[in-house]
Write a structure and sequence with these properties.
alpha/beta, 8-stranded mixed β-sheet, two-stranded antiparallel sheet, globular
Length: about 475
């Protein structure tokens, strides 16, 4: 914890109590006690609006948009009408001209569906392991969004907006609740594959919030944090002395620029990096995990190995109090085919989804089972989401186009009505059947915030004189999926 900073402020008569009494800081002006706490430690733990059901969120973004028609949303009518034109009645009220056009209905002859668990949830043969966790999940089968392009819709999924500049959901949570572990980033981004996810860091940006609340990306390797190790020729005392001098020099400039959040974030990053050298190596080290645990996460399979390692690290970070872990699916290390580097199956859906599903199926099932065994599922929310899904009609004869009008997402963990399904799509899976049950990105965000004890209408930040909130001017809590 930043005790040196707090001790200095207390000894200087500028502790939170002192500031509240005087209400004035030289160079900053008159402020209240809450603002004073922000200035002293912006990542200090803060109280929610009401008791939350969970403490942490693992946000599983399935990059590239899987066809939930081929995973969870069984449509007998689609198999019956495959190869025929889409009836005009199913296209009423939607625009498809920006995409590849409407071709004939497509259903893979490899696809089979079965019901699982007491809930009777449908899963295809692509997800045999996750199917065993059916009764832990609450499905939202009436998800909707904007499906212009992947990058735009991914930005909306993470920030609620179609243009860069707004904070990501993780940044809002970091700002509103602070950190539970001062030795680790409170908001971490994980991904597998050799490349950074599509559109990159704008999806874990702090936007107009102070920069200290942005996400910290970990690389997909055995050493996920760059420059974590101290150089061999530098002792811990020498490094501490250098940091103290740097902090003193930066403070001289910082006193003249109290509103420079980039500078504050940089100062905090130096201190966090120093603390992380002690805590982070252990947090991301999988070598002490048992063989049974590694197998549970699919780390014994080349296709699921990289994603399994990412999810096992996510569990270890949750154990250590990390608030928000944003996991972006990539591709297996044993795959070189560019067509299978995300779920984006405009062609060869069978080949693409067979690879991607095998990559995520066992790791996600293992994560849910592991969290349950360790007693962490009750305090953790797992969200399975994508930027949109895919159409019931074919493209290139063997793939599917973008579908933002009706698809499946799910949540699991504390405060969730396990084994429940909310909403549905029409008989072909084109769009939401009952528009009153449509769940937009804003609604999903509002529900996640609610489970953390935050009212999305009261989670606000003044930006250029305007009171901003995570869900812009939209959003409702999906109460039907809450326990």
């Amino acid at each position: 914890m930043s005790t040196n900073r707090r001790d200095f402020l207390l000894k200087a008569g500028l502790g939170v109590g002192g500031v509240a009494a005087s209400g004035f800081i030289p160079g900053v002006g008159y402020i209240n006690a809450a603002t004073a706490a922000e200035l002293i430690d912006p990542l200090a733990t803060k109280q929610p609006h009401f008791p939350g059901k969970v403490k942490s969120v693992i946000w599983l973004h399935q990059n590239g948009a899987p066809s939930t028609l081929d995973l969870y949303d069984y449509k007998p009518e689609l198999f019956k009408l495959a190869g025929q034109p889409v009836p005009a009645s199913f296209l009423k009220g939607i625009k498809t001209s920006t995409q590849g056009g409407v071709n004939k209905l497509f259903a893979s002859n490899k696809r089979t569906f079965k019901q699982y668990g007491e809930s009777g949830a449908w899963f295809s043969e692509l997800l045999p392991n996750l199917a065993q966790q059916a009764d832990k999940l609450a499905f939202i089968k009436s998800s909707v969004t904007v499906g212009a392009t992947h990058d735009i819709s991914i930005l909306k999924l993470n920030t609620g907006d179609l243009n860069p500049g707004r904070p990501s959901l993780g940044a809002w949570i970091n700002y509103a609740l602070g950190s539970l572990n001062p030795d680790l980033p409170s908001y971490v981004v994980l991904y597998n594959g050799e490349q950074e996810p599509s559109a990159g860091s704008v999806n874990w940006s702090s936007g107009f919030l102070p920069a200290v609340y942005q996400g910290t990306a970990f690389r997909p390797s055995d050493s996920p944090i760059l420059y974590l190790e101290r150089p061999d020729l530098r002792s811990a005392d020498q490094q501490r002395a250098s940091l103290d001098l740097l902090k003193h020099l930066n403070k001289l400039g910082g006193d003249r620029r109290p509103n420079d959040t980039e500078l504050r974030a940089r100062l905090e990053s130096y201190e966090l990096a120093d603390r992380m050298q002690k805590a982070a190596p252990e947090a991301v080290d999988l070598s002490k995990e048992s063989e049974a645990t590694l197998k549970l996460y699919g780390i014994d399979d080349p296709t699921s190995e990289s994603y399994g390692k990412v999810l096992l690290r996510a569990r270890r970070l949750v154990e250590r109090g990390v608030r928000f872990i944003q996991v972006v699916s990539g591709y297996p290390s044993n795959v070189q085919d560019n067509e299978r580097r995300s779920w984006d199956a405009h062609s060869d859906l069978d080949g693409n989804h067979a690879t991607q599903a095998r990559m995520v199926d066992k790791p996600i099932a293992g994560l849910l089972a592991d969290l349950k065994t360790l007693g962490l599922l009750d305090s953790t929310l797992v969200v399975w989401a994508s930027e949109f899904s895919r159409t019931p009609w074919g493209e290139s004869g063997t793939g599917r186009d973008h579908n933002p009008w009706g698809y499946t997402q799910w949540v699991a963990g504390g405060g969730v009505k396990a084994g429940y399904t909310f909403g549905e799509t029409d008989e072909l899976g084109v769009q939401v059947a009952d528009k009153d049950k449509a769940v937009d990105t804003y609604d999903l965000h509002a529900t996640v915030l609610h489970l953390l004890g935050l009212d999305h209408l009261k989670t606000t930040f003044i930006n250029n004189g305007r009171s901003e909130r995570p869900t812009v001017v939209y959003g409702k809590v999906v109460k039907e999926i809450l326990a």
